[in-house]
Amino acid sequence: MTGPQTEPDLPTPTQGPVDPDPVGQHPVIPATPTPAPEKIVERPSPLTGLARGGIALVAAAWFLTREILEGEELGGSVVIIGVVLGIYAIIAGVSGVLTWRMTTFIADDEEFRIERRLVSQTSTRIDYTKVQSVDIQQPIVARLLGLAKVHIDVGGAGGADLVYLSLARAESLRDHLMARMRGARRGLPTPPDATPITTGADNLAPDLESAEDVVVARVSPRNLLIGAFVSSSTAVWVVIAAAVLIVGLVAGEPITAIPALLAVGGWVWSQTGKNWGFVMSRRGETLHISRGALNKAAQGLHPRRIQGVQVRQDILHRPFGLYSVSVTVLGYGDVGDENEGSNALILPYGTAEDVAAVLHAIWPDVDLTAIRPRQQPARARWLTPVTFRTHTWGFDDTVIVAQHGLLTQTRTIVPHRRMQSAGLHQGPLERRLDLATVAIHTTDGPVDLRLYHLDAQAARGVLFEQLRLARLARAAADR
C-alpha cells in the first residue's frame, strides 16, 4: 500500500529548463528584468503668470501712491505712468504664462535637470554634489497664492531658479535636493526604503538624517524692534531728521523733514520687515532659516559651507544685551548683492544665549571659553590709543579668534581648516614700533579676521603656526 501522493518539487533555475506544465496547472513564466522607471517631468505652477502680473501690479500701485503723496499736481503724468505700468503688468503676466508652458524639470535620485524652450532651448543639469544651498522665497503676491520661488545655489557657477512652484512642492524639492546632496558627497546610495519621487504636493522626499526640525534660535518682536530702533545707524538718521525739522520750523516749512523721516522709516522697515518672525532650526545637518513679514524667505544652509563667523554688538545694544551674527558662506560671493547680504545675516538681534546656540549649531566642538585672550603689546597703544584694550586675539587647535572695536565690538571666528591664505602686513609706523598685523583670508564675505599690531616677531610666529594648524586641520578633515 503506497502512501499519499505528493506533487514533485519545482526545479530551480540551476536544475535545467523548466517543464512548462509539470502538474497540469498553469505554466511557470520566467522572471523578466524590471524596466527602468520612466522619468517624471514636472512644470511650474499654472498660477505663475498671475503671480508675476500681480507682483508688477503691486509695484505699480506702490509707485502711483508715492507719486500721489509727494506730487503737488497730479495732472496727466500719473495717468500715463499708470498706463505704462499696467502694460508692464500685462507683459509680466504673459511672461509668467510662457514660463509655465515652456519650463519643465526632472528631480529624481539620478539627476536634477531644468529645460526651457522659448526662442532657444536650454537644458541645465545640476550635479547633486555641487549644490551649496536651496532657498525658498515668497514675494507677497506669490505668498497669497500659495506659491514660492526656489533658488538653487551651486557656488561660483551661480545657480538656477524655478518660478513658481506650490509652497508644498517647493519645500519638498528643497528637502530632496539637500538630502541627495549629502548622500552624493558621502558616496551613499539612495536608501532602499526611500519614498519614490512623485509629483504634486504629496512629494515629500525623505531627509537622510532626520525628519524633525529642532529650533536653534528665535528672534522675538521685542528684540527685533529694539535692535532696529536703538542702533547707531538709526540714531544718525533720527538726528538728521530732527535737525532738518528744526530748520524747517524756523524757516516756516516743516514739510522739508518728510524725506528724512521717510528715510528713517525705510531703514527701520528694512531691518524689521525682512527679519520679522526670524526662526533658525536644524534638521539633521542642515540649518533652516525662515524670515519675512510680507515677502517670506526660507534659507537652507549647511554648516560645512560656513567659512567664518562674525558676532557684532552696537554700543546702543549693550544695555539690552543684543548681538547680531553674520557668516561668510562658500558660494555667496560679494555681500554687496542684496540677497547675498541678507543671507549672510543668520541672527539679526539675539541674546548671548542665542549666539551660543547658533555657534553650537554651526561648530558643536568649538569652545570659545577655553581660548585665552591675548592683548597687543604696550607700545601698540600709540596706534590704537582709544581702542587699545578692546583688541584681543587667541586660538586653539580648532579656530582662531580676534576681537576689536569700541563703538561696535566685533568678534571674528575662523576655523583653521577654512583658512585659504594668511598674510603679514607692516606699515611705516608699525615698522618703527616693531609691530605687524596678521591677516587670515577666507572666501569673500563679511568676515574679515585681522590680528592688529602684534609684536613683529610674535606675528611671524603666529603666521607660521596658523599655516601649520590649517594644514593639519585639512588633513584631519580629509581623513
TrEMBL record:
Pfam families: bPH_2. Residues 1-44 are annotated as: Disordered. It comes from Tessaracoccus palaemonis. Keywords: Membrane, Transmembrane, Transmembrane helix. Residues 100-177, 280-334, 389-453 form the YdbS-like PH domain. The chain crosses the membrane at residues 77-100, 224-249. This is PH domain-containing protein.
